[in-house]
Amino acid sequence: GLALGKGESLWKSVYVSWERHPLALSFSGRHDPRAGAVEGLTARFDLAAIGTVDVAGSARTAPALSFDLRTEARLGLGPLYSLYAQTGVAEEARLKLEGSLGASFRLLKDGPSLTAGGRLTIVDAAIENPASKSLFLGLSADIPVSYDSAPAASDGSLPDRGFLRLGEFQSPGLTLKSIDIPLRSGLNALGLEPFGVDLYGGRLELGRTTFRLDPATGSFRGLGSLALRELDIARLPVASPQFRLTGKFRAEFPVL
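Below the sequence we write its predicted structure tokens.
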């Protein structure tokens, strides 16, 4: 095992005080130096006050790097975000996070292709942004993920189901409650099922929206639709010192 409890590290905008967040690493496995392989690998990364990451599986370095690993992570969002060094931002103005993040993945590399499949979960999360005076409460998610760095031809289907839920959103000009967004996932793709929310006396409706990743370039492309129906202009968070705004507003964007 390995224990790190003194000193500090800085990588780009991530700062870790090892006294505040000591790391305990334990690992075991069977190493065959002639085959360049490690079988029965198990490892645990334990960061005090942040959470744990467990890894199990096998790895080889010859004739080329390959591995088959299963990972389980359980992390606190607040302590994890505290590692991000918000240089020049006053303590009272910094973004605040609460809740927990979970991840369960299988990572497989055999030849040039890297695949990752599993789920991300968020439980009882809250986000407060003092700069914009906005607050997200009761945030939870179950997000299926399927990635392949060199995929074969795909039929574009989204067979896996998940969700994104928000108990309440508060800001100076808007309050929303009980938002439930069904999710669908497929190979290198994530989709939002159609949903709507009441907004300023009218309604916002988002059609089925899909985001697809091109692993060769790292770029995303999306396709969806949006409709704003009968929004009450008098309730919008805008004001004119010269005249009162009234009327209804509607708009449709069949393709986004």
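The chain has one helix and 19 strands.
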